[in-house]
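re: that complex we talked abt at group meeting.

here r the seqs, copy pasted straight from the sheet so there may be weird spacing, ignore it
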Amino acid sequence: MQMGRMIYRYAVATRISHWFWVIAFAALVSSGLQIFNAAPFLDASDKSSPAHRVLSIQSPQDGVGTTTLFGHTFTTTGWLGYTDDGMGGRTERAFPGWITIPSYQDLADGRRWHFFFAWIAIAAWLTWVISSAIKGNLREMILCPSDIPKLWPMQAYYLKLRREPPPHGIYNPLQKAAYTLVGFVIAPLVVLTGIALSPGIDAVAQPLTWFFGGRQFARLWHFAGMLLLIGFFIVHTFQVATQGLFNQMRSMITGWYRTSENEATEA
Amino acid sequence: MKRRLFIATSISTALTACAPIGTALNNNAAFHKLLGAAQPLDHALIGTRGLAREYRESDISREFPIDSLPTPTDAAYDDMVARNFSPYRLAIDGAVEHRRTFSLAQLDAMTQSTQITRHDCVEGWSAIAKWSGVRLSDVLALVKPRADARYVVFHCMDRDDQGTPYYESLDLHEAMHPQTILALRFNGAPMPPDHGAPVRLRVPTQLGYKSAKWVKRIEVVGSFAAIYSGKGGYWEDQGYEWYAGI
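got the structure back, here u go
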């Protein structure tokens, strides 16, 4: 990569909210799996209904763990269903202790973590959106209609079918599409499907839970949203790691990012 | 390649560190207390507003899970079952102007309210059933809570394997909610023993653990700090939130 000039890429509010997001995301996934373990199945219905079961993780007999997805059962002993109890042994448990908070089964504390870090995540998201909107640089990240014709050329560049990326600003069109989808579609939907699970919310805002297909369905969407966010996390970490890890990490910690030559001409 | 392996190893190490770090923080009293800061915020924002969704007869769950402490098996309870709960008396006392008891026949004679609502368990499952009974607000109107009354505590007949009895509490606002009832009937039949016969509290705006089964005494209080472990309920004493609307 040719060396470009240094630019101040991330405002302090962006950097702080980013790292709060990282912590909150880790806490929410681990405590969320802890909560899932208390009722290790997902139904595409309002009330619980085995006829509408999409996923279930169980231990049909001692020492065996199975996972049933859309009616197909897989043996997942050691990983799911019969796995790490978080105390050095193995037990009947959907998700293993090495990925839940607390590591041992404790629904009450899992909920305590989940509801605390849900507020941290929401506060970080609001901090980022409001500060970026005030500074006017939110549009650098949000996909706009003029970016759409550039999506395929950018993908072609990644697939090495094209020598140069299409001209773009700080973020390329695929990055903008990913950030828009994650930040303004999936993350808000994960929050909404989460609060739709609460009977108190269902009483005050009945259309919300109804919109997602009822309480169990909202639980299914909430879980699916988590999987999408984990997918984004994997791709995002891979890209950061492969496209100048040091430069990327420095920019998200100090704000300063060194542009490459072709980005520098555009930015 | 070495660099990529290093990066992959670092990321996996960071991921597997979440659970042990989280568990250690969870066992830190100050951090554990901080985590609880969300509860008053949720209570203030959500509270008990609006009405729980009411369903049609065709929505009723074919099987309704029994997921509470075990059904009482003591001689007094067995005797009440055998005699169709004629010896049963519901006592209401504490910070009230007129403490009194109600027989099942007296409760049956009061205005009955019916709801087909969804029961949402804290574990995550949901089931729909039809409950009929007396509005708690009607019962409280007869005993007249005093000015110092804040909470309504429900003492129950079921006990865990350590002998600790079940209890629950609501604040007066939740207790006066039109869908908060003392249910006497379940899916059109007299309340079955496993579902809390003869009187089960039904609070459809909150999680299932608030809907206490086998209620024998209702105590109106200014504070529940002196009752059992002081957190306002059997599950609350074991770390669950007192506000169960979320």
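couple things i noticed - Chain A touches chain B through 53 residues (CB under 8 Å). The mean pLDDT of chain A is 93.
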